[in-house]
Amino acid sequence: MSADNWRDCLRCHREAKESWQRAAAAARGAYGNVPMAEYESLKAAADSPPDVEAETLREDYETWIDDAGVFRVTYKASCDKCGFHFEFRTDAPTSEAAASPL
Length: 102
Known about the structure:
Blueprint: E1 5-7, H1 10-30, H2 36-47, E2 57-65, E3 70-79, E4 85-93
Antiparallel strand pairs: 1-2, 2-3, 3-4
Helix pairs in contact: 1-2
């Protein structure tokens, strides 16, 4: 079954940004304290933008009114890359729910 939507995962983006910030801090701290070749390697890593895969967050959702007149919503989001997972479900009776003959 295919997903209803694919989007960028906020956790993956946050973790990539934090990793890049740690690399930049390591390069700044290494300046003048390590051999030049090592510093240049650290600086190159810090100068590279974070590498984040696009659209790794799968979203699946449904909305419907069941036979008893209850409006139902389900939503699931998950990222196979970082393990993020979220589910939401809610039910709300419609004005027809009490009058339903089923």
